[in-house]
Amino acid sequence: MAEEKSMAIALIISIIFTGIGILYAGDAVKGVTIFAISVLLNILAMFVNPFLSFINIIVWIAGLYLTYKQVKIANGTA
Is residue 46 part of a domain? Predict the structure, then answer.
């Protein structure tokens, strides 16, 4: 059996870098995709439209939820 993933570590990583906690939990494609979306929204919010910051907050919250779910799947408790 693979090493059990820490929920606390995954969530702390995702709080700081949206999506990277999912990567830690084992889903590289989903983690990198959410991280890239978050970075893109941050860049667009700085240079194009500040409203995109609000959308990025929604992506951040969704990323935390998906991290929680991915860790449960990785640990076999989902």
Answer: yes
